[in-house]
Amino acid sequence: MIENTWDAALYDARHNFVTVAGQALIDLLDPQPGERILDLGCGTGHHVRQLADRGAHAAGIDGAADMIAAARQAYPDLDFRVADGAAFTVEAPVDAVFSNAALHWMTQPERVIERVAAALRPGGRFVAEMGGKGNINSIATAAREAIHELLHVDVTHQWYFPSIGEYAPLLERHGFEVRMAWHFDRPTPLEGEEGMLNWFKMFGGGLFPGVPEGVIPEAIRLAERRLRDTLYANGRWVADYRRLRFVAVKRV
Ligand code: BEZ
Predict the structure, then answer these.
(1) Which CATH number, 3.40.190.10, 3.40.50.150, 3.20.20.70, 3.40.50.300, labels domain 8-133+159-190+241-250?
(2) In this structure, which residue's CA is closest to atom 2 in ligand 1?
(3) CA 136 to CA 235: how far, in whole Å?
């Protein structure tokens, strides 16, 4: 899993588009009252709340202790646990695993899928959305060019953004039937004039692996300047998100 320093308050204040976009995914999951559902990479817990409000027995796990602390504080009646997506277990099989904007942080996809398969009952569903191939291409390119200009070295971002063609075989290999999959652009507005700077502050760790701390602010400034031509228009920033969304069912 990628190391990132999470600021749960900034995440909720400036990046609540993650939660908003997740509503459509919950509709696709179609949770039923009484179903046991695990949110894998639950962040600050809002989707677990929504699943519970629809009558499911929902629980959330996340690798980031800060996120789980914020989730527990916001929803003390719900079940949250710090756990690694590549190594988690559940006490009893669940009916569904849900995951929004989290799987691209987990850089051992086969182990994650294997854990999801082990957590589900036969016939259980895995409904998820993550960054897909080409996600944040302009942002990552601008960051790479900035580092090249400053340090004359090449950096590669650390996230896992697969295509359908790459991800579906992994699911099939671990006993899933892929019922639906989409790969689509989701231009994502960022809030305010500082939107891109805040995005870099929140998530930039994954863009600058191994880069000395002191260089990063200048790299961000350069990258932001480069991005202005392509991702800033009419007074707002729009991030070039691209999503991979799928419904997979564990074979009976
Ligand atoms: C995403 O949701 O696509 C994403 C968020 C933060 C960093 C990289 C990608």
Answers:
(1) 3.40.50.150
(2) 101
(3) 20
